[in-house]
Amino acid sequence: MTDQARASAATLTGAIEGKPTSASRTTLSHIMTHNDTNLLGTVHGGVIMKLVDDAAGAVAGRHSGGPAVTASMDEMAFLEPVRVGDLVHVKAQVNWTGRTSMEVGVRVLAERWNESTPAQQVGSAYLVFAAVDADGSPREVPPVEPETERDRRRYQEAQIRRTHRLARRRAIRELREKRAADGIED
Ligand SMILES: CC(C)(COP(=O)(O)OP(=O)(O)OC[C@H]1O[C@@H](n2cnc3c(N)ncnc32)[C@H](O)[C@@H]1OP(=O)(O)O)[C@@H](O)C(=O)NCCC(=O)NCCS
């Protein structure tokens, strides 16, 4: 289906028109300085997490065409230490969309300032963003349209994570309700 045909179909059905993954994919690059280090002299994990949230937020805003807030961040993995002088690239894309939320996948790569080697993956994370209106209430997002086999794999894996997140949340809520009903206080 052409872009124009898709737009017409979406207008006729009242559905929000889908957006391809590539329309919002983003890379944020940053050189690490002494201000970014922990007591060991390597880069603080929180500095990387801030860059991850920034890049993912930019992607969520671009995909949803407006403000989006971080609802959760999970599976943040730090694979290798990042050092002062490293050029860090944070690559983010929408993996999956629900009605008002989006999962954004992020890969963190580092180019060593003193080595002419390819950028090395140093971290990864998955974040859920909710698109919100001016009052902070969730609003609908365009469905993401995966374009490549890798996009499609990421979409399917995001659905598995979504199922697990919801199941975990429900199980914990039920446990707390049961403990409260049994009169158990923390
Ligand atoms: C995220 C937020 C908008 C959700 O609002 P809510 O009233 O709970 O609304 P809903 O339950 O309808 O959730 C909206 C969407 O977010 C998803 N969501 C909400 N909390 C989630 C969580 N912890 N993990 C994963 N997804 C979550 C819901 O599944 C839903 O997605 P869907 O419409 O695609 O099915 C609200 O909790 C909020 O504003 N949180 C603060 C966000 C913020 O300030 N972030 C920055 C931290 S400083």
TrEMBL record:
CDD domains: BFIT_BACH. One of its GO terms (cellular component) is cytosol. Keywords: Hydrolase. It holds the Pfam family 4HBT. It comes from the Bacteria. PANTHER family: ACYL COENZYME A THIOESTER HYDROLASE, PROTEIN VDLD. GO terms for molecular function: long-chain fatty acyl-CoA hydrolase activity. Belongs to the acyl coenzyme A hydrolase family. Residues 147-160 have a biased composition (Basic and acidic residues). GO terms for biological process: acyl-CoA metabolic process. This is Acyl-CoA thioesterase. SUPFAM superfamilies: Thioesterase/thiol ester dehydrase-isomerase. Residues 22-135 form the HotDog ACOT-type domain. Residues 1-21, 137-160 are annotated as: Disordered.
